[in-house]
Write a structure and sequence with these properties.
Length: about 575
């Protein structure tokens, strides 16, 4: 049979965003949809489907065929280290390799998206999408005994995306030990972090189909169930989009019109897949800005030296990258722990800094202009202004450092494993800003990924403040009864009573941290005045029919894990595309 090459909608990328949009648009049999995906199907790939039974089994798909396996640019503020940077390359995108943690965001964070020029974007309106998509499978008795709790009001039960607790949840009383310790230290316990109030110690559900003990990636939720019944939905696998093709109109000064996407197939043939209504880019935070740049949409200072003609000038594309650093404290334990841990403490700035909060807040506020200057100095020329950068930082600081803020700033995972308790943790909301830009005219080469972790010293202070709290947990009963000694960083590297300002913390952190690979905001959805790349419906400013819909358009980083909110954001934008076509 002959494959059609003209569709109403062409979607690049089949991650959670691309597949939600494809699913929703192709529900109408009269509408034709193409999805272009550089990777292959991972339907029966055991590195993808198998649920880890132990934390050491986590990440089977990493650095295999379903991972782009990028590296970061050398990190100026981390002794010039280059960090591994994972991103999924398969039907299902990064949900085929991710940790499957299902945690949405803090309500105030999504409400704040509206303040950045996205009228109508707030927690309550996003909730419709969050809950309609979710098919929550409540925990069984054994899981409850091991710490799984939930609230009905925090979940949807009838959606396509199955969520639930791991069948291998660690027992041996670990969660109760953690919870009692957390409460002894004065932190909240949270019976369900998915209702917009994330703070506290809790267990998290995962994107899994608990009934089959299998990973619920984006394709399993939104593609395979409809694939056979929708001949109007066509997926091009092993096919890489190289640039957006525009209508030739030399004299037009108005919005450019996309007519399709140029692709290279696995057999190395180049062709154009035509989209008569829209081209939707869902290639993720790393490749969406790169694809726009290769198509001539971007910052002229980046494009011109590579010989790429600027079709639409967009100085901020690829800038504003926000990612998180990840590091672990490790203790030995006399107990031999088995099972898969999904235990977390989410702490706010006041939980972290306690009595130091007013002082550090004052220091941060006094330095906003300095921070903005440092960010600008690391950006490509002419990206944004000091005034706008200050405004964006102030918006973030207000959310996090207000004395009554409920926004989690720290995520601490508790992972008992064999005779160890491993505790990865991260500053959820760094103020540092990085960038992703193409460095070659060859669209098959990956862009330079530069998260600029620890560009601003405040970010390592936050990371150190978390570390101090983790040590306090281990020194407090009943958790203290389950550990013998600290093996990372160890008191030789960081003295036992080192405060968060102690330089030994900063040294260890910068020498040892990796990235948490939660990149967002490289094509931010914000008002044009603030340097937004897309409007509140994902449409790229200056184009008639190009949208970006994926994690790259998050206006800000969030305290949840990203996939739940990527699904919901895509669902909401699908609503607005459908509402337009019905008009
Ligand atoms: C190691 C790791 C662990 C994570 N753990 C969690 C977790 O536990 N919970 C959670 O919620 N989130 C987690 N995340 C984050 C989450 O999975 C991603 O944020 C989310 O999948 C992003 O969705 P997306 O649609 O924006 O892009 P992606 O899921 O990255 O999808 C983009 C797709 O586009 C394709 N593509 C890119 N360029 C092109 C091109 N030019 N042509 C054709 N196709 C292209 C890619 O191959 C990919 O399939 C994790 C991420 C990583 C890397």
């Amino acid at each position: 049979t002959c494959t059609p090459k003209t569709f109403d909608y062409v979607i690049v990328g089949s991650g959670p965003a691309g597949l939600v949009i494809a699913n929703r648009l192709s529900a109408d049999p009269k509408v034709t949809v193409a999805v272009i995906e550089a990777g292959d199907s991972a339907y029966s790939n055991p590195n993808v489907t198998t649920l880890p039974k132990l934390i050491t089994e986590y990440g089977a798909g990493l650095d295999t065929s379903v991972d782009w396996s990028y590296s970061s640019a050398p990190q100026t503020y981390m002794f010039n280290r280059t960090l591994p940077y994972h991103a999924g390359k398969a039907l299902g995108g990064t949900t085929t390799i991710n940790g499957m943690t299902f945690l949405r965001a803090e309500k105030a964070q999504i409400d704040a998206w509206e303040e950045l020029g996205n009228q109508g974007w707030n927690w309550d309106s996003l909730w419709d999408s969050y809950s309609a998509q979710e098919g929550f499978q409540p925990p069984n008795e054994e899981q409850r005994r091991n710490g799984a709790t939930y609230e009905d009001a925090a979940h949807g039960f009838n959606g396509d995306l199955s969520t639930g607790f791991t069948p291998y949840l660690v027992g041996q009383g670990f969660f109760n030990t953690l919870k009692e310790t957390s409460e002894a230290l004065g932190y909240l316990s949270n019976s369900d972090a998915n209702d917009g109030s994330m703070r506290g110690t809790t267990t998290w559900p995962m994107t899994i189909d608990a009934s089959k003990s299998i990973r619920e990636d984006a394709a399993r939720a939104f593609y395979y169930p409809v694939a056979e019944s929708r001949p109007n939905l066509h997926v091009f696998l092993n096919t890489t989009a190289t640039r957006i093709v525009f209508e030739e109109n030399e004299c037009s000064t108005s919005e450019v019109v996309a007519t399709g996407v140029e692709v290279i197939s696995s057999d190395n043939t180049t062709e154009t897949i035509r989209g008569t209504r829209e081209v939707i880019i869902s290639a993720g935070s790393i490749r969406s800005p790169a694809l726009l740049e290769h198509s001539g949409i971007g910052n002229q200072a980046v494009l011109e030296p590579l010989g790429i003609k600027t079709v639409v000038s967009h100085p901020t594309i690829g800038s504003n990258l926000q990612d998180q650093p990840n590091i672990a404290i490790v203790y030995t334990s006399p107990t031999n722990w088995t099972g898969y841990p999904t235990f977390v403490s989410l702490l706010t700035a006041s939980d972290l800094f306690g009595d130091d909060l007013p002082g550090i807040t004052e220091e941060i506020r006094a330095n906003i202009s300095v921070y903005a200057g440092a960010i600008l100095a690391d950006y490509a020329p002419h990206t944004t202004t000091l005034e706008i950068q200050e405004k964006l930082l102030k918006h973030q600081v207000d959310l996090i450092f207000d004395a009554n803020s409920t926004v989690p700033l720290a995520e601490i995972l508790w992972a008992p494993a064999g005779n160890l308790i491993i505790v990865p943790f991260w500053n959820l909301l760094p103020l540092s800003r990085g960038s992703i830009h193409v460095t070659s005219p060859d669209p098959l080469l990956p862009p330079s990924i530069n998260p600029q972790l620890f560009q601003l010293p405040i970010d390592s202070f936050v990371q150190a403040a978390i570390a101090v709290r983790v040590r306090e947990f281990f020194a407090t009963g009943p958790l203290s009864e389950h550990v013998t000694s600290e093996i990372s960083p160890g008191i030789e590297a960081v003295p036992q009573n080192a405060s968060w300002r102690d330089p030994s913390w900063a040294t260890w952190i910068k020498k040892t941290s990796g990235t948490n690979t939660h990149p967002v905001s490289t094509c931010a959805m914000m008002s044009k005045e603030l340097g937004g790349v897309v409007d509140k419906e994902g449409k790229v400013y200056g184009t008639k029919n190009v949208r970006v819909v994926d994690a790259s358009i998050f206006p800000t980083q969030i305290s949840g894990h990203l996939s739940a909110s990527v699904y919901a954001l895509a669902g909401r934008i699908a609503d607005s595309i459908l509402a337009k076509t019905e008009r």
